[in-house]
Amino acid sequence: MKKNYNLLIGIAGLIGVILIVAAIGYIVSKPRPLVIQGEAEATEYRVSGKIPGRIVEFLAEEGSIVAKGDTLVHIDSPEVRSGLAEAKAARAAALAQLNKARNGARTEQITGAYELWQQAITQRDVLEKSYRRMINLHDQKVISDQKFDEVEARYNAAVAQEKAAKSQYDMAVAGAREEDKAAAAALVERADAALIKVNSYLDEIALTAPSSGIISAIYPKVGELVGQGAPIMTIQDLDNMWFTFNIREDRLHSMKNGDKVTLSIPALDSSEVTATVYYMAARESYATWKATREIGEFDSKTFEVRMRPDTTVEGLRPGMSAILVSRNK
Known about the structure:
By secondary structure, the chain is of the alpha+beta class. The protein has helices at 2-29, 78-103, 107-139, 145-174, 178-203, 285-288, and strands at residues 37-48, 53-58, 65-66, 71-76, 206-208, 213-218, 225-226, 231-248, 260-265, 271-282, 302-309, 321-328. It has 3 domains: 32-43 and 237-328, Efflux pump adaptor protein, beta barrel domain (Elongation Factor Tu (Ef-tu), domain 3); 47-77 and 200-234, CATH 2.40.50.100; 85-197. α2 (78-103) packs antiparallel against α5 and α3 packs antiparallel against α4 (145-174).
């Protein structure tokens, strides 16, 4: 009887051990709930300038909340300052040429041209009298043909000189031609355009915030040189945030745009947020393709799914994790 009792105790202990091992194996091998994790993202703006220069000062630092239009950084550019001085000088020269063309010749120039014309008239009159006398003498065969030809040539030259002096006087009175005035005006317009261009570069010396948000990164230091178009800082727009998930296609379960989902934010004490799916697209296959045929399944791809929160989430920042809790039917 004692042996049978000991045997029953041993069998019961063995069965208990087997049950305990089976229970532990079941608990260990029980599949864990699927966790689909994403992160918060926000629209980013890069602050950069059109001109190269040296950083003079920053008026904001990383983590600062800025509003659209706030001045963020000052850049010193000697090239822009010299270009501005050159453009102003070019405009002044072009404007002087235009005024000269519009005002015409000076009074002294007009008076001088008139005196030369009168002198040419007097000389023509004298040679005209001599020429008429020579005509009579030539007709009477008193002078030779050569002498007559010389007097006639001097008279014709005096007539031509008088006409040229008259043209010079008329031109001085009339002033510049309309074509010259138009050309001078065009030079002024070109100088004005160059000045506007330089002033537009001058506006880039003080860079402002293109959008409201938080400064997430500043790249150069004060005193460093920056090139044209080089990014100086990044602003994240906290008013335009969304959640991005990379979900394998066999776990989408007919998810589509417009679906409502509930998300949990661990960084915000696991507070739950309602969001709406608005974007779905397959990711690049070389980075997300997963072969599963060796276990009798199909080759699956990963989809990028974006969800926008229905309301503003206080304290939410880009990079915070989000856990997909459920889909709201």
